[in-house]
Structure formats: structure tokens, C-alpha cells
Amino acid sequence: MGAGGTKLAVLGAGNFGTVIANIVAGRGHEVALWVRDPAQCQALQETRENARYLPGHALHDGVKPTPSLEEATAGARLVFVAVPSAAVPEVALRLKPLIAPGTGLLSTTKGLARRGFRFMSEVLEEACPQARIGVLSGPNIAEEIAQGHFTGAVIASPDSSLCEEVQAHVHSRSFRVYSNSDRYGVELAGALKNIYALASGMAAALGAGENSRAMLLTRGLAEMSQFAVAKGANPLTLLGLAGVGDLMVTCSSPLSRNFQLGRAIGEGRSLEAAAAHLGKLAEGVNTVQQVWAEAQRLAVPMPICQGLHAILFDGQRLPDVLVRLMLAEQRDDVAIAWRHP
To answer: How much is the pTM?
Structure first.
């Protein structure tokens, strides 16, 4: 451990968890990487490479894989939770007796809990009220970060000292971390963009041109902003890395699981067949279902989300939904207008 180093923990050895562990270790800190699967943990310990999720990139010497959650969290100043959304509730309950008061507990998982309109940070906060809760989000494709491409992320928390602490421990030569006090808005943006990544994948399958993609992203951002306001978030948050930034990369990158799933459906596969082809169900499917239900409750117009819900859950055909969207009533370009005082 380097001079001034601190112990930190990363829970989850997927691609992003592995990348964050490497970045923090590169800053001279001791990093415990919790690996749920003992066989995968042993392989990481022996080969020093996450061949399953981040092949070709060695683990930093300061990263210590462990199958023990207790060992990983013991004495850790900051704990980054990077497990899949479906696993967060169980992990949060296991963390409850392990997290010391004042520990920074940071969600990096984008999406909604399967039950109730709750984000991952809210699940963590309910289980561990003694922790300082934050969210790390943004346009962060793990493979590009591992390759050293310049990347920006945002740490969101009303606790400014927590934001400063994360910035000090996580930023690197190629990974820049900005702060935002609107934790809810940042997490909302990280979930909502998956909806429009699905739509973007479908549009790509249909051979949509640049004009079409620009319209889709812009109208998607408009829907996100209106929904964010209705839920009490700051609409300006949607203009930052967690909003526009993540929306752009997720809606255009072939590495995006939601884009891949949307493309497979656009090519004619059923939702079940597309998920089987991808290997797992992308987060955006659950998000579409929950957001559309909440949009109806709040009377927020979200025609793209509504159209996706009709395709995914009501058996409607993509071409029919597309025509209906194009022929629908035309609305204001910018629904959240700025007025000079």
C-alpha cells in the first residue's frame, strides 16, 4: 500500500467493478475485491486477470480478490457496490451488520429494484442507515476505461465531503470525477437512459439514419427531463454526464447490453429469444415496465416509453408503433421552458 493509502472495497467482480478496483489501487490504495463465486475468485487470485468479464487486462498488484464479504469490508473507508441490480437487495442486507458508521457506501449499479420504484442507493440506505450514501455514474464503458481512454464520471451525494473523498481516491490521469449534489437525479438519469438505448437499438435494426437517431435521442432526453421534474429531480442534472453523456454512449455503443437487446428485437426476435441471444435480460426491460406505470400515475407524457412497453409487453409490432409515434400529436420542442426573470 502506497504512502497515505487507505483501504477501500469493491463488491462485485464484473467488468466495471474490476475497472474501479484497478483505478483505486493505481492511486496507491489497498483494494479488497469481493468475488461472490469462489471458483472465479480463485482464478483471479491465480491468474491476476478477470478472464470472464475483462479479458486482457491484468489486475493491479494492490487489488486483493476475496470470497469473504466480511473480509472485504473490514476497515474499508469507502465501499463501492458493483453487483447486478437483482443482487443489490440481498447484498445490502448482508452489509447491514458489516458497515461501520460513517463509511462511504457507493452504488455504481444503474437501474430500479424489481419491486417498487426504488433505486439502488435507496435500497442500500434502507439497509445501512449508518452509512454515507452516494452514487457513481456516467458514460462509463468498462473496456474503454481499462484501455486508458479519457473518461468522465459523476459522484452524486448531498454530502459534499463524501463527494470530495471519492474524487480524491478515484480520479486518475484518464478517469476524471465530477460532483453533483442531486443524488436522486443522477440515479434517475442512469436508469432512464436504458429505455432509449433499447429504442436506439431497434432503430438501428431498421436502418435509421442520422436524422432519425438525433430525433430519437433528443425526444428521449425531453421525456427524461419531464419525468425527472415530476419525480422531484433537478432537470439540469439531465444535461450532465449522468444524463446526456450516458444517454449518448448507451444509445450508440455496440457494447451496450440495452442497445444490443433492442437491436435483436428490431431484427425480429421475441423478447425471450433476444434475451437468450444476449445471455441475460438487459436492465432497460424492467425500467420500461416500472417507468411507464409511474408515468401514467403522474400523468407525464412519455410516448417513446409507452411505445416500447407496447412492443415488449403487449405484443405490438415495431413498425406499427413507429407509425403511431410519427403520426401522434406534435408537442412543444422544449417542454421545460426557461423564462427571463
So the answer is: 0.91
